[in-house]
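pasting for ref
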Amino acid sequence: MKKILAIAVALLLAAAPALAQRDETIYATLSPTGEVLSVEAGVRVEGEAGEYTETGNYASVEALSGQVSYADGVVTCQIEDGQAVYFDGLLEGAVLPWTVSVTTSAEIGASGPVDIDIHIAPNPDCADAYYAENLALQMTLSVDLDSARVVDCAGATQTVTGSTATFAWIGLPGGELNAHLSLETESFVLGDIQIAAMPMNLGDMLGDFDISQLTDGGAQLTEGMQALSDGLSSFEITPQQQAMIASLATMETDDPDAQLMQALLNQFLPMLDSLDTLKEGVAQLNDGLNQYVGGINGAMESLLRETEAPRSFAGAESTDSIQFVLRVPAQSLPVEAEEPAAEEEEQTVWERITGLFGG
């Protein structure tokens, strides 16, 4: 009986799917204007030895390492201890979580000023908003400094390696990313553009920093502005009181103390005329400050919230990590076709002989 039980347990363990760590990266190639040309999923699986299976919406699957097969929407991997399995799956007709628009003010090869504008936004046609709402964007654009001079790169972080300058922009989860670059070029070509999307949790980045210090400071500032606004609103002078003050300020007197009081009143009267304007200005400033602090608090709450568990874009039941890499390959100047060399006419025997003697 014990022998039969042991055999049954062994069979069950052999049939059980392997426990594995799964990482997914979606690679998309875009046209120079941002249209999607191709989408592929690069998957890495590592874990216990055995058979690992997952579902997938692939048109085809290619094994990059290890044993991988794909049939009827199921990927099957044979995992060996300590050996990761890599495979690449083609996703036909995939709708990316973002739309990308790239516009340039000049054609390739043009000389002179060139403006490059890139706009990335959540794609409303994507069936799952999870990716756009939970993944942060980082975009880089390369510029060859031997053929272009940078005129304006506002909002970008710049690094230079040799003759190549790389500009980087960041987009927060759920938002849009807008980038602008102005160049002065000798012969314009659009450099390599790469857009990476990955999970970002500001709480992990801040470490021990207490974000409540920032939000509490904003609340104190708005309370102070509200108190100033309330104080100005409660300061009211009737027309009769203002007329009496004006009369006292212009009354003739030889009393030095009265003259000093009149000088003070004459300085005070212009303030009365601008009091209403001051009240309106403070009220508008207070409203704007409340909106600003409210926006900051909302953004902080959004960034500090826990990121949802990763979801597979390729259709697997689960994944341990997900990221996207979108790329617009660098353009190159068209190569001018060389004119074919003129064929030499074949010489006759007599022409060859006379040529030997300089004839």
